[in-house]
Amino acid sequence: MARKTTAKKAAAKKASKKAKKVASKKKAKQPAPDAPATAAVNSMLKPPPGGAAVRMYRIGHGDCFLIAFAGDNPDKPAYVLIDCGYKPGSPAKLKPPTKVADIGANILETTGGFVDVAIVTHEHQDHVNGLTSTNFPDLKVGKVWFAWTENPDDDIANQLRKKFKDRLLGLIDERANLMGLGNNDAAGTLDWYLEFELGEEAENYNGLAHAAAGGKDPAKSANKVAMKYLRECAPGDPEYLYPHEKIRPIPGANGARAFVLGPPRDINKIDDLDPIGDENFGHEMAAAGAGGAPAGPTTSPFPRRHALPLDQAFTDDKFGEFFESRYGSSPVPEPGDGKEISSNAVWRRMTADDAMDAGALALAMNNATNNASLVLAFELSKNGKVLLFVGDAQAGNWRSWTDGEFDDGGKKVTATDLLERTVLYKVGHHGSHNATLKGKLGSGRANLAVMAKGDSTTEFVAMITAVEAWAHQKPKPDWNHPLPAIKQALVEKAGGRVLQTDSNLPTGPVGAGAAGWQEFISRVTETPLYFDLIIEA
Known about the structure:
By secondary structure, the protein is α/β, with parallel strands linked by helices. It is built from 16 helices and 17 strands. An eight-stranded mixed β-sheet has the order 6-5-4-3-2-1-17-16. The protein has a seven-stranded mixed β-sheet with strand order 7-8-9-10-13-14-15. Strands 11-12 form a two-stranded antiparallel ribbon. Strand 2 and strand 3 form a beta hairpin. The longest helix is centred in the first third of the chain and has 28 residues. The termini are far apart.
């Protein structure tokens, strides 16, 4: 009897110790309110000495990255947040689904509520709509970095803004025209593109002719509000980054630097959207250009100074009245029998059959915003490994990277040099056809073939921010994100080391990737909310 009692006491004591141990572990995950922030967060996203840790959030069909660079203070990494946005409905397509509020909470917990640098690559819904006070209460930011295209004092940026505004207002009006014609399908196609630009549904937004009194102002769209909120999280004005201007140290980091490659300071190059020749991965749109336009940098045989884009015709200061009265929505009297047909006859007007043209214009506007993406190559140390983040940059942006060089204390650093040292590539625009150029070695232009040469070859990793189950239902034809040919090329180049938002950690190497596979797996952590990748110096 005594033996049984002793045994029971021992078992109870053991169970009590185990419970306390479990409780202690659980408690350790929630630091005391007065604990130093660095002590609480370093174990969550801690870079190796001289290296970096990259967290790719599974936010849905969109981008959200947190990079921890080794800091000046070994106990305090330098945190860089790049974008935070998603297409509505896409997080629910993940298994399990994710919530942007949980991602915001994780970023705040990981960083202790302070991000050294917050970056927005471009003003699209799937890159900014998560940046709200609800998702990031009390967020503090040291510096905010935007592309030069956001600079209110830049003349070229102001030209781009006027052009974009005119297109946007014209397409909002065109949507109303199509709805009036009963062509809801065509109007719905415009909605997909307008939602990217506005950050919310286009219904009831002001154009120039429709909803002018009671509608919403595009200048106060959800995207604009998100950008404004981020600016207000930091003291002072944002910094506007220019390509090839200078090499930027990462605030708080120990040696890490940023090289700005794009967007180009050339409106023609921002309008240059599609791959040509050996840059092309074979997508059918690349052959004809987006919306059926000819491929390449020029879509008209006439110089730009002699051309007036269709989407700007009705709002042009000099010719807008002419186009509106003859081809727009002004009243058209029916001519009597035997009378001459008027110059603004109904047959000149927009009809439901013209919806494809409006869709092409909307796609072109959407792509031009993508092509104005801020492109950054982060170098961990001088002449060291490079992390390449391209936003949604497309062909013209890529081609411009080699138009200039960087002066590094008397030594020239080129885009080709940075690409050759790249060990991480954030794949452009969810893997779409015109946001990764195929190319050849020795072409003198930026392309996938140039990336990851020498020692970088066995470490190269690609990250694709795509949710295929969502992309394939939008719009008609569906968005082929990622393009299978690009995905396959990345898998082969990386030896299988490709991480995609909606996919599990790859199960095995491909081709030459077998040699370093276990080392790669040891550097990756997968959770339902994110992938972490550790990059040694």
